[in-house]
């Protein structure tokens, strides 16, 4: 998958692997991200601003990698049947996805900082 914000970045996933390789096609340098898991990568979804990557697996979990924090990883597990489809909001703050075995659409909101309401409670 080509990175739309940096025309020289290429994301590579082997059909038998659980890790990603990021390659700079201008310098030929590469970096491997992600931890080894027991499952193979199913699909990669890049956020519209290219700051995050959703990686779905042939298993009951997904991972989101954040470019702004040196490709740090967030993992959500316990997804019944695995993620079958996903889409990012235009502003890259929401991720919507569906699982194979549950008739629901899930939403995850990404915030750059903790937001508080007028009465001082955290906004989820």
Notes on the structure:
The chain is an all-beta fold. It has a 4-stranded antiparallel sheet with strand order 4-5-6-7, with no helix packed on it. Strands 1-2-3 form a 3-stranded antiparallel sheet, with no helix packed on it. A 3-stranded antiparallel sheet has the order 8-9-10, with no helix packed on it. It has a single domain (9-109), classed as TolB, C-terminal domain (Neuraminidase, 6 Propeller), CATH 2.120.10.30. It is 0% helix and 45% strand. The chain has strands at 9-13, 20-24, 29-33, 41-46, 52-57, 61-66, 72-77, 83-88, 94-99, 105-109. A hairpin with a 6-residue loop joins β1 (9-13) and β2 (20-24). The N and C termini lie far apart (32 Å). This is WD_REPEATS_REGION domain-containing protein. InterPro entries: Aladin, WD40/YVTN_repeat-like_dom_sf. One of its GO terms (biological process) is nucleocytoplasmic transport.
In short:
With 124 residues, the protein is mainly β. It is built from no helices and 10 strands.
How are the secondary structure elements laid out?
Elements: E1 9-13, E2 20-24, E3 29-33, E4 41-46, E5 52-57, E6 61-66, E7 72-77, E8 83-88, E9 94-99, E10 105-109
Antiparallel strand pairs: 1-2, 2-3, 4-5, 5-6, 6-7, 8-9, 9-10
Keyphrases for this structure?
124 residues; mainly beta; Neuraminidase; four-stranded antiparallel sheet; three-stranded antiparallel sheet
């Amino acid at each position: 998958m080509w990175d739309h914000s940096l025309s020289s970045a290429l994301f590579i996933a082997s059909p038998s692997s659980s890790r990603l390789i990021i390659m700079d096609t201008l310098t030929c340098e590469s970096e491997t991200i992600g931890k080894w898991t027991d499952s193979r990568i199913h699909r990669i979804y890049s956020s519209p601003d290219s700051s995050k990557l959703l990686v779905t697996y042939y298993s009951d979990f997904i991972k989101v990698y954040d470019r702004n924090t040196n490709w740090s990883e967030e993992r959500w597990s316990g997804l019944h049947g695995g993620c079958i489809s996903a889409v990012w909001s235009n502003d890259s703050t929401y991720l919507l996805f569906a699982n194979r075995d549950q008739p629901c659409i899930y939403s995850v909101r990404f915030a750059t900082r903790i937001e508080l309401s007028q009465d001082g409670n955290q906004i989820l």
